[in-house]
Design brief:
mainly alpha, rod-shaped
Amino acid sequence: MTNLGDKMKDNNRRFEIQAQHIEEIDANIKEINATGEGLKKLAKLME
């Protein structure tokens, strides 16, 4: 049972790390989108 409990704790820790990485990816995507919108506005001003 101890081994099973350790495996469950390890899986939970991995899940938390993966969730953090997903949040970082989401933040990066939002930043890229905002940059794209800014470039789009800039391009319209230069027309």
